[in-house]
Write a structure and sequence with these properties.
Number of strands: 14
Strand order of the largest sheet: 7-4-8-11
Number of domains: 2
Number of helices: 4
Helix content: 10-25%
Order of helices and strands: EEEHEEEEHHEHEEEEEE
């Protein structure tokens, strides 16, 4: 049923051979495709699956690919926490004396390597984003007059990974850009820190040998 179609997944496979007659006339095929459907879109919930890479290895690969690593700031200390307002289940706070610095300066001041900072201090390492959301719009509208330090909003989300839990989200007071902490992207296993990336529609490291023997929910009689 087309109404239950979700995605097309591209799977990187072993490069197939090209017949002699096609040599030089076509590219070697190294992909296959999976059409993903749901039995019931209304009840569908996709459990997230993550790729794990040791964090400093991930950062090196990221920068080697020519991209600019965004988690370059450190929140040293929030300082005094001032309650500004409480309404409609939201609490607004101001941290006028918050101290922030760059990772480079923090590394120099504390005599720490970046590798140590990205792991042991990941809860202080952050980037900012101006991504639009209803919560950020509330911050911009309700706290427009505050331009110094950090502001925050404390509330209980109704959906998402933090649904039902009290959280506090931080923003630069000057432009209301939201803080994103590196620790939220990491998982610690056996004293190592791994960067998590959600699996998307390109599967380039999936083992699919004997995949036809997995699952058992749906029988593809002519599948392979």
């Amino acid at each position: 049923d087309r109404d239950n179609f979700l995605n097309i997944v591209t799977v990187k496979t072993k490069i197939g051979g090209v017949s002699g007659s096609s040599e030089g006339k076509s590219l070697k095929d190294s992909t296959e495709f999976i059409n993903v459907f749901s039995k019931n879109r209304e009840r569908l919930f996709l459990n997230p699956v993550y790729q794990k890479t040791e964090v400093n290895e991930f950062i090196k690969n990221y920068e080697d690919s020519g991209k600019s690593w965004k988690y370059t700031q450190v929140l040293i200390d929030l300082g005094e926490k001032i309650l500004l307002e409480e309404k409609d289940g939201f609490k607004y706070y101001h941290y006028p004396n918050a101290q922030m610095t760059s990772i480079v300066k923090f590394s120099q001041d504390q005599n720490l390597s970046k590798e140590i900072i990205y792991t042991e201090y990941s809860h202080k390492v952050y980037r900012t984003t101006n991504a639009q959301s209803s919560i950020r719009s509330k911050i911009i509208e309700d706290l427009y007059s505050i331009k110094n330090g950090i502001v925050s909003i404390e509330y209980i989300p109704q959906k998402g990974k933090n649904a039902g839990n009290l959280i506090e989200v931080f923003y630069n007071a000057s432009n209301k850009d939201m803080f994103m902490f590196l620790s939220d992207m990491l998982i610690k296993e056996k004293n190592k820190y791994f960067y998590l990336q959600k699996v998307n529609t390109l599967w380039d490291d999936i083992q699919y040998n004997n995949l036809n023997k997995e699952g058992g929910y749906i029988d593809f009689k002519n599948g392979k």
